[in-house]
Amino acid sequence: MNKAYNETWVENINNQEIIDDWFFRKLITDEQRKEAFQTFPVGFHQSNAFVKTGLFLFTCIVASAGLGFVSLFLFEIFSESRFGFSVISLIYSFVFLYFLEYFIKKNNFYRSGVDNALLYAMLSAAFSGVVGFTDFDLPNWIYCIIALIILLPALFRYADPIVAFVAYLTWIALWFFLVTKYPIGKVIIPFVIMLISAITYFFIGFWKKKEASHYYTEPQNLIEILALTTFYFGGNYLIVREGNALLNDLASSVQIDFAPLFYIFSTIIPLFYVVYGLKKHDRKFLLVGIGATAFSIFTYRHYFSILPLEWALTIAGIFLVGLCIWAIRALKTPNGRRSALGLTSEAIGTNEYKNLEAFIVNQAMQQPHQPNRSDFGKGDFGGGGAGSNY
Predict the structure, then answer these.
(1) Which residues fall within 8 angstroms of residue 270, CB to CB, at 6 or more apart?
(2) Which residues of 76-87 are buried (b: 16+ CB within 10 A; e: fewer)?
(3) Contact criterion met (CB below 8 Å) for 188 and 133
(4) Is the pLDDT of residue 223 over 90?
(5) Cα Dmax for the chain
(6) Among 235, 258, 228, which residue's Cα sits nearest to residue 168?
(7) Shortest CA distance to 118 belongs to which of 142, 139, 92?
(8) Are 88 and 125 in contact (CB under 8 A)?
(9) Fewer CB within 10 A of the end CB, N or C, for the chain?
(10) pLDDT tens profile 312-350
(11) In 3D, which of 165, 171, 188, 185 has the Cα closest to residue 116?
(12) 359 closest CA partner among 87, 2, 36
């Protein structure tokens, strides 16, 4: 599918971030930085987060006002049937799509707030329009399929992280509703969620290798984080036990089948994430592992509380402060050396150089040319400067 945004400019945004990081670390001079920015130009309309938020809210207000005004003339169609509502919603979605594409091409918007608002409005209107043709009595998994059919083309065209987030949750919900239709499914659903999460994670890894540009980097990273999270939740004892009570309409949770296995999952998975993240220098594994470790501690305390909450929080706080102090000291890099794991506590920014290698060789790393101050050409012997009059 064709990409909505200029792929070269998207790539150059990443390049400029790396160049800024180099400049901050004093690896290049200000002149080299300016030259690099000229080599990797970005033509998108760019602004800070506050302006983007304002534009997003303003677009939402304008779109709502416009829909409200048009709806005044179409009120009779709305009130007559659900079919009329669906038709109007689909018309709205096409209108939003037109303005979305127009502003991207005309004003070079890229996640500026305006295009985000129009994208979400278009998807919401499209889903409402399609669902409106049904009697709202279809199985939930069918609505998940409808949502994915709408979301996935938008994800591949616009590479929006929020769309990726909703699409992944819808993907997991699809399998949840499909499997739990059957009695045996309520037993195996944790393993299904873990399996689907693992498959999704490896698929994103394959997609990353196939897609060389940074156009989909943010959605890919977000889906990987979500896949790691749902894989852990699928094996977490608390989630499985309380989820089992909800699925079976139990007043209170009871001991579940394969409880020892989920105890092991709740312990092993966070530890694996942390160790693998440290060993492979993978920030996603490390951060999810830290969060999963905290949730596992909460899980065990929820069912096997020994100390009062105040004592537990105090001891945990002291332990974490001590751990942070030890980690900062252990990860210091004296004399430019790294720790045994190859890690550092210094903020060194991104390390994704990729297509900048040619730039390093040919442009940014070149020293400014120093003119030759020798004034040759005034000697007696053919201008060589060898005579006494030089």
Answers:
(1) 232, 289, 292, 293, 295, 296
(2) eeeeeeeeebbb
(3) no
(4) yes
(5) 109
(6) 228
(7) 92
(8) no
(9) N
(10) 778 877 877 887 787 777 766 554 455 555 666 555 554
(11) 165
(12) 36
Backbone dihedral angles phi then psi of residue 45, each to the nearest 5 degrees:
-75, 110
Q: Check pLDDT > 50 for residue 369.
A: no
Q: Which of 40-49, 103-112, 199-208, 306-315 has the lowest mean pLDDT?
A: 306-315
Per residue in 284-299, pLDDT tens? 998 999 999 989 988 8
Taking the C-alpha atoms of residue 115 and residue 131, their distance in angstroms, rounded to an integer, is: 24
Kindly list the distances between the CA atom of residue 178 and the CA atoms of 136, 198, 213, 223, 247, in Å, as whole numbers in the listed order.
17, 18, 35, 21, 13
Beta carbons of 237 and 265 less than 8 angstroms apart: yes
Q: What is the pTM of this model?
A: 0.82
Residue 306 CB-half CA count within 13 A: 4
Place of tokens 């996640």: 111
Rounded Cα distance, 11 and 214, in Å? 6
Quickly tell me which residue has 């105040």 as its tokens. 310
Q: Identify which of 201, 159, 200, 192 has the alpha carbon closest to the alpha carbon of residue 285.
A: 201
What does the alpha-carbon distance between residue 267 and residue 108 come to, in Å, rounded to a whole number? 48
SS3 content of the chain, % helix, strand, coil (to 5): 70, 0, 30
pLDDT in tens, 185-203: 888 999 999 999 999 999 9
Residue type at 351 in one-letter notation: N
